[in-house]
Amino acid sequence: EASRPLREAAAVLFDRDGESGAVRPGTALGDVLRLEGGIATVTERDPEAADRLLSLAAAGMIPGAAAAPR
Q1: 18-47 pLDDT tens trace
Q2: 56-65: buried (b, 16+ CB within 10 Å) or exposed (e) per residue?
Q3: 5 or 58, which is more confident?
Q4: What is the rounded CA–CA span in Å between residue 40 and residue 17?
Q5: What's the predicted TM-score (pTM) here?
Q6: Which of 34, 35, 30 is nearest to 59 (CA)?
Q7: What is the distance of C-alpha 61 from the center of its chain?
Q8: What's the Cα-to-Cα distance from 23 to each of 5, 37, 65, 70, rounded to whole Å?
Q9: Residue 61 contacts residue 32 (beta carbons within 8 Å)
Q10: Gap between the Cα atoms of 49 and 68, Å rounded
Q11: 40 φ, ψ to 5°?
């Protein structure tokens, strides 16, 4: 599987962020990757929508953050 090294590196970074409190407890890397893939798929022809949706999703994963409309 070609993406394995990338997933392993992402897992290390994600775990570190989880331990430091930078990611909301209970957030799973697999869910984040699926969310990102879904956003990429549905906004393939609309980069501005992709940016808005990724910002909204990220704000939902950061403890205490509120999503600001763009």
Answers
A1: 999 888 888 899 998 899 999 999 999 998
A2: eeeeebeeee
A3: 5
A4: 23
A5: 0.71
A6: 35
A7: 8
A8: 22, 19, 11, 22
A9: yes
A10: 14
A11: -60, -40
